[in-house]
Specification:
With 219 residues, this protein is an alpha/beta fold. Helices cover 44% and strands 16% of the residues. It has a five-stranded parallel beta sheet with strand order 3-2-1-6-7, with helices on both faces. Strand 2, helix 2 and strand 3 form a beta-alpha-beta unit. Helix 1 runs parallel beside helix 6 and helix 6 crosses helix 8. The model has no long low-confidence stretch (mean pLDDT 88).
Length: 219
Amino acid sequence: MDRHKAIVVFSGGQDSTTCMFHAMANYDEVELVTFNYGQRHNAEIEVAKSIAEEQGLKHRILDMSLLGQLSPNALTDHSMDITTDEAAGVPNTFVPARNMLFLSFASAIAYQVGAKTIITGVCETDFSGYPDCRDVFIKSMNVTANLAMDRDFVIETPLMWLDKKETWALADKYGKLDYVRKKTLTCYEGIIGDGCGECPACQLRNAGLEAHLNEKEAR
């Protein structure tokens, strides 16, 4: 296994693109894997392809459309409005088993290409109540992948303890703030860049950006 090679779970959004730049700065060889699971906007796949091409990185797109067959959620059932179930504390944008499956397949790719590190942009600080973004899950998944494939993988989570302001600061550290701001797609309405400004993803992203820029200006 090559400790200098990393696989990045890549959606073309703010978090995974920041993780991509983190990987490029810290590993000699970086590959991207994107999962097509019937997400709300096909533009997400196109954005991921475009960024990978611009950065000259090897990029796989895997068909995971079966996720939409497992349980109703607002990311794969486009007829559903995006809401938060206050009683359950989990938004209806939660896709059960998504990160578990993504990391399993990313680990299989890492096994195939001999990469030691798998990087994902999950975050417990701003995780919207998604249970599969918690640090305890990632640690458990890391142990499971190692046992299942008899390898010593490291699942790296550069954003785990960062809020959105700090995630923007990390992109800025790598000199990529403007790129991440203009080229990535986080918006639930499929609008690239600053997005619609209204959906939960945009509100979180834009509040973090404003906080980072205000802090930067105050220095």
